[in-house]
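[audit] Reproducing an earlier prediction to check determinism. Same input, same settings, fresh worker. If the tokens differ from the archived copy the diff job will pick it up downstream; this log only records the rerun itself.
[audit] input (70 residues):
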Amino acid sequence: AAIIAWVLAFIFPLLTYFGVQGSFWTFINSINYVWSFVIGFVVYILLMKTSLAGNSSVTEEEHEAFTERA
């Protein structure tokens, strides 16, 4: 999920360099770092909340093991 989010966050701001035209893409190109962070964060959250990422979510047992106090 993190790799997919990173790739999308990297590719979307570069669309203007690939010839995509329009005022929306010009605006997106002007805020590259913010846009990249937002896209990467949203895609990562969506992938982790759904089953699209496969078995990348943490089960309840794994969560309990992580947060177990010594």
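[audit] rerun output stored. Observation attached for the diff report: The chain has four helices and no strands.
[audit] end
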